[in-house]
Amino acid sequence: MKGHDAEQIAASYLVRQGLKLVEQNYRCRFGEIDLIMSEGQILVFVEVRMRASDAFGGAAASITTTKQTKLLRTARHYLSGLQHEPACRFDAILMTGTHNPRIEWVRDAFGE
């Protein structure tokens, strides 16, 4: 399974949980945000991580401090283009396994 496939699975999963897809693969000079979703009035920036197994810390361990900093800067860039800044949070979708992956949704995975 490729990263794009994992993002599609994650987006579908979150839509089934009641979120709405706003944007996918938002890119700027600071980095990329996999999914931008909304849950009511909250804008949710989602990092999707997939690993074949839990070895070496699994998917969660791959969201390093450096990665979090890039995501925060990218989110600030996205927000700067909006007329009004909504309440926001950073979630993570962690997938383990390549066929029929186990999905874990971590709300408020990190922030400032």
From TrEMBL:
<keyword id="KW-0255">Endonuclease</keyword>
<keyword id="KW-0540">Nuclease</keyword>
<dbReference type="InterPro" id="IPR011335">
    <property type="entry name" value="Restrct_endonuc-II-like"/>
</dbReference>
<comment type="similarity">
    <text>Belongs to the UPF0102 family.</text>
</comment>
<dbReference type="InterPro" id="IPR003509">
    <property type="entry name" value="UPF0102_YraN-like"/>
</dbReference>
<dbReference type="Pfam" id="PF02021">
    <property type="entry name" value="UPF0102"/>
</dbReference>
<dbReference type="GO" id="GO:0003676">
    <property type="term" value="F:nucleic acid binding"/>
</dbReference>
<keyword id="KW-0378">Hydrolase</keyword>
<dbReference type="GO" id="GO:0004519">
    <property type="term" value="F:endonuclease activity"/>
</dbReference>
<dbReference type="InterPro" id="IPR011856">
    <property type="entry name" value="tRNA_endonuc-like_dom_sf"/>
</dbReference>
<protein>
    <recommendedName>
        <fullName>UPF0102 protein SAMN05216302_1014107</fullName>
    </recommendedName>
</protein>
